[in-house]
Write a structure and sequence with these properties.
Blueprint: H1 5-51, E1 55-56, H2 68-71, E2 75-82, E3 88-92, E4 105-114, E5 117-127, H3 133-140, E6 149-156, E7 174-175, H4 180-187, E8 193-202, H5 223-251
Parallel strand pairs: 1-2, 3-7, 5-8
Antiparallel strand pairs: 2-4, 2-6, 3-4, 4-5, 6-8
Helix pairs in contact: 1-5
Length: 265
């Protein structure tokens, strides 16, 4: 059974398309496996850092050498004094790293003085107050006692907002991302501001608010399910193409047979 040239070109084109689709799906599956390995390494590193005993916060002269890959979630202890400057609130719908936090609210970000420099402290969570600035001021004001406070917390690094992140509300000093440099610039925290901030673990204020606390690793790990999905789709496309190819070959018309010539005597 022969196949016409036009049909062969059609089969070749469909074969190329099917091959490209299968290649893309397989690459997505292998990419998910790579992400899974990286996620497991990250979870192991974060678990180790969060469980470690707190070390001393490096002095300001060493802050520039700190980096997220090596220092994110590192537990530190230090003594600092909250500055009598405007604080910032960061809206959140919950927390992926605090088991004791649920529902919407705000995180209280306050500047503190340390060795002539400024380190920004996420002093804890304030449950949903409809962004009532007056109420939030009453909660945060007791922290502005200008007395040195022994603190323990976790090094974190700022996160600028994306294109869909709302702009800060200047009147309420309300942010929607943990953009510490923007807060420091707009609120006049001044001086040398640390390139990180500290998620406070202790101490807990007498009234419990803002609410600091320990962090935990709760990263989603669904990469194996995603990989299986991509590999399954690649298999489905491959099988569908083979079935189609088999049907094409069955439907191919038979080539006409040459007629036998009659010789006239």
């Amino acid at each position: 059974m022969s196949v016409s040239p036009s049909r062969r070109r059609g089969i070749a084109g469909m074969s190329l398309i099917a091959l490209l689709i299968v290649a893309v799906l397989l690459s997505l599956g292998f990419w998910q496996l790579q992400r899974r390995a990286a996620k497991h390494a990250l979870i192991a590193a974060l678990t180790e850092r969060l469980a470690a005993a707190p070390s001393s916060l490096p002095p300001p002269g060493e802050w520039a050498a700190l980096a997220p890959a090596a220092d994110e979630f590192r537990r530190v202890s230090f003594t600092a004094s909250y500055a009598d400057l405007p604080d910032a609130m960061v809206y959140s719908s919950g927390s992926a790293i605090r088991e004791d936090i649920s529902g919407p609210g705000t995180w209280a970000f306050l500047p503190a003085r340390l060795d002539g420099a400024t380190v920004v402290i996420n002093a804890g969570f304030v449950p949903n107050t409809m962004q009532d600035r007056a109420y939030q001021d009453r909660i945060v004001k007791p922290l502005h006692a200008a007395q040195p406070v022994a603190m323990t917390g976790y090094l974190r690094f700022p996160e600028a907002g994306g294109i869909f992140t709302p702009n800060p509300d200047a009147a309420k000093r309300l942010w929607f991302s943990r953009d510490v440099p923007a807060m420091a610039s707009q609120l006049g925290w001044g001086g040398q501001v640390a390139p990180f901030y500290v998620d406070l673990e202790t101490p807990v204020p007498a009234n419990g608010l803002p609410k600091p606390g320990p962090l935990g690793v709760h990263l989603r790990d669904q990469h194996m399910q995603y990989a299986v999905t991509w590999f399954g789709l690649a298999l489905a496309v491959g099988v569908a193409f083979l079935v189609w190819l088999w049907g094409q070959r069955r439907a191919a018309p038979a080539a006409p047979q040459p007629r036998a010539s009659r010789r006239i005597a």
